Inverse folding.
């Protein structure tokens, strides 16, 4: 069927009447047609809307990117209302049931499931790049005994760029490939070194005979035994947790990796930005916060009082709510299934009863129902990590290990995307203009306001 066509004002394209948005600027009475494609309008199409020739043009304002697509991506699909998560089109449930973390990492990076030969080669490559330069050990030794392992991981991932300076040749396919392999291979080693440093224990070198999660458990927990033998139920649980955490489209840390990577910096530096973003309690730090919250609640009897505190906004129910999922997070459902399997090996964690009670009460409470707040991936993952004997400080590190494959997949997609430009948002300027410089002796403190505005302490008063 032929559709009526309208020329765009800027002459940059033709929008069919059906696939366009007609906007009237009530300041001028002018009407504009803006093309709609893939359910989006381009923010730059609004720049043509001006009150006069000197006007910069209309901008869009979206401080947390809540309604702005920052890229095209074929890595990960989420339907937040339906609670669907797919990697490269494969449902997360099937991947957790039938795949392994390393196969999923291949899928995310290469876009398709590997053949047996491709998978064997991939596993061989990853397994043979798990060692880190001995200087990294010295670097880790420089941290205080109680340094947070995420801080150490952030520093060591960034430091990898100094050991592989050729990685800055991001147009070179081989360099990109090597960076992908090295990051996935070495992040568990760096994580385990950070953990052992906190405990004052000697570092354990990778064991090439073990699987990816088995080797990680060995690097973490091996003591005097000649060969560490991981429990297959624990390695499988860990593998599933890592599949679940591998990617989650344009979340805060992935956005950081893409944003930093858009300056064409090397991938290790870009990945370090991802680790930094993941550290925050509203993102990867939430699983640590959940455990601390369960510790504070102490017993099932205190659950109603705690939830009252949440509703009065004195507390936040960590591990609940999500920017995208307005339904049960499918990852939380899968983790819940594995909690019991892990407890079979490790013995039950009493905090599970508090978590179960919290979930039950919250899902029946209007406050949470109305706001569509359901458990997210972090609500139960911390319980498994604790059962594995990991201290809460390590929980976010356990998230960073698998998310590394997602960051790389998204970084590779970004650097090879012709639409990529350096990320550089606009702002709405709210400050003063055109002031004249005042000599220091002639200055008076104007008001309390400038210091109060920044929430800093006034140095003159302290
Ligand atoms: N506890 C209590 N109230 C909440 C919570 C919560 N966990 N999450 C959201 N709300 C309320 C919020 O106060 C607001 O209520 P009102 O409209 O009355 O002011 C409403 O629900 C909407 O919340 P929002 O803050 O606009 O939602 P958001 O999309 O900006 O925030 C979130 C998403 C994940 C940051 C938030 O839900 C949160 O802080 N959750 C706890 C931290 C957490 O578990 N984070 C892990 C996220 S999953 C891991 C990952 O993928 O990174």
């Amino acid at each position: 069927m032929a559709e009526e066509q309208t020329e765009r004002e800027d002459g940059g394209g033709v929008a069919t009447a059906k696939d366009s948005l007609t906007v009237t600027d009530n300041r001028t009475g002018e009407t504009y047609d803006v093309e709609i494609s893939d359910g989006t309008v381009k923010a730059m199409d609004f720049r043509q809307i001006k009150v006069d020739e000197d006007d910069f043009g209309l901008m869009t304002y979206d401080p947390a990117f809540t309604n702005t697509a920052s890229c095209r991506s074929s890595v990960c699909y989420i339907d937040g209302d339906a609670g669907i998560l797919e990697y490269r089109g494969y449902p997360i449930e099937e991947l957790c049931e039938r795949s392994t973390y390393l196969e999923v990492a291949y899928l995310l990076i290469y876009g398709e499931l590997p053949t047996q030969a491709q998978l064997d080669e991939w596993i061989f490559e990853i397994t043979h790049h798990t060692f880190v330069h001995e200087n990294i050990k010295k670097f880790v030794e420089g941290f205080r005994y109680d340094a947070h392992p995420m801080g150490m991981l952030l520093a060591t991932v960034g430091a990898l760029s100094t050991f592989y300076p050729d990685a800055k040749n991001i147009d070179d396919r081989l360099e990109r490939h090597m960076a992908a392999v090295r990051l996935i291979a070495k992040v568990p080693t760096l994580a385990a070194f950070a953990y052992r440093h906190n405990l004052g224990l000697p570092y354990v070198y990778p064991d090439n005979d073990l699987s990816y999660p088995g080797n990680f458990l060995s690097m973490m927990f091996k003591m005097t035994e000649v060969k560490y033998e991981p429990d297959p139920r624990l390695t499988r649980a860990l593998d599933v947790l890592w599949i679940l955490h591998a990617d989650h489209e344009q979340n805060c840390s992935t956005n950081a990796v893409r944003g930093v990577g858009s300056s064409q910096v090397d991938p290790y530096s870009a990945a370090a930005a991802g680790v930094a973003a993941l550290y925050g309690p509203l993102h990867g730090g939430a699983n640590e916060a959940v455990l601390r919250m369960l510790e504070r609640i102490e017993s099932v009897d205190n659950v109603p009082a705690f939830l009252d505190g949440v509703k009065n906004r004195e507390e936040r129910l960590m591990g609940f709510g999500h920017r995208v999922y307005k339904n049960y997070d499918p990852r939380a459902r899968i983790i819940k299934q594995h909690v019991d399997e892990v407890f079979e090996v490790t013995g039950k964690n009493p905090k599970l009863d508090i978590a179960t009670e919290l979930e039950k009460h919250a899902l029946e409470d209007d406050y949470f129902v109305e706001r569509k707040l359901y458990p997210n991936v972090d609500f139960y993952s911390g319980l498994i990590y604790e059962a594995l004997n990991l201290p809460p400080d390590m929980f976010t590190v356990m998230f960073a290990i698998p998310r590394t494959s997602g960051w790389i997949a998204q970084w590779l997609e970004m650097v090879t995307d012709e639409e990529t430009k350096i990320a550089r948002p606009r702002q709405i300027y709210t400050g003063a203009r055109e002031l004249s410089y005042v000599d220091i002796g002639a200055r008076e403190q104007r008001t309390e306001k400038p210091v109060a505005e920044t929430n800093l302490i006034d140095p003159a008063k302290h």
